[in-house]
Amino acid sequence: MRDHRRSVHQGEASGSQTGRETLDVQTQPNVLLVEDDAEFAEDMRAILTDIATIRHVGGTATAIAEIIREKPDLIMLDLDLEPFLANSGGLEGVAFLQVVREQIDGELPVVIVSGRMSEELKGTLQRLGAVACFTKPPDLRTLREIVQSASRHQVNREACDGGADSADNSLPRRGRAV
User: Fold this and answer.
1) Model pLDDT for residues 159-175, shown as the tens digit of each residue
2) Higher pLDDT, 172 or 34
3) Phi, psi of 111 (to 5 degrees)
């Protein structure tokens, strides 16, 4: 984990009721964002940059190399990525999560942010150890809380929640298929 001592300003995206609050961030979590949609990845970087160091990769093979090179504190994972394992049923992120759990690190927190989410899939992701699941666009307040908890190594392994609770607290869809 990287140590970044600085003062940051959080606005409404973090759930602040008073506008801008200054927070002293002692350590920021190192987050590996595995996302093939460059525009969405840039949105996530802009939203989380004040509370986390974001490394973005566009696919699972690169993500494996990055995890081995420098283990992140948390992985944010899209499910619809390029093929990782044969016969993964179009959900390569699920196969990637399984490999991370079984062969790399069974305790590394993984947050799913995907356009595809069913109750059955949520159950599968929970069994594989996902700490949270969001349907795009994600609920930003909850997502920020989870990322911040990674800096304290207190990620609560809670149920996948499914996504945005309100339009005021989520990213615009920008015409993306989700």
Assistant:
1) 455 444 433 444 443 33
2) 34
3) -110, 130
DSSP 36: S
| Cα–Cα distance for residue pair 92/158, rounded to 1 Å | 23
> CA 2 to CA 31: how far, in whole Å?
11
- Round to whole Å and give the CA distance between 28 and 2: 6
The distance in angstroms from the start CA to the end CA of the chain is 32
The angle subtended at Cα 121 by Cα 120 and Cα 126, nearest 5°, is: 100
Q: What token pair was written down for 125?
A: 């992701």
What's 98-128 look like in SS3?
Answer: HHHHHHHCCCCCEEEEECCCCHHHHHHHHHC
- How far, in Å, CA of 169 to CA of 95, rounded? 30
Classify 144 as helix, strand or coil.
helix
- The residue behind tokens 């049923």 is 89
- Range 156-169 burial, b when 16+ CB lie within 10 A, else e: eeeebbbbbeeeeb
In this prediction the pTM is 0.72
Q: What region, left, alpha or beta, does residue 36 occupy, with left being phi > 0 and alpha being psi -120 to 50 degrees? A: alpha
Structure tokens at 164: 């945005």
Q: Please, are residues 79 and 88 in contact by the beta-carbon 8 Å criterion?
A: no
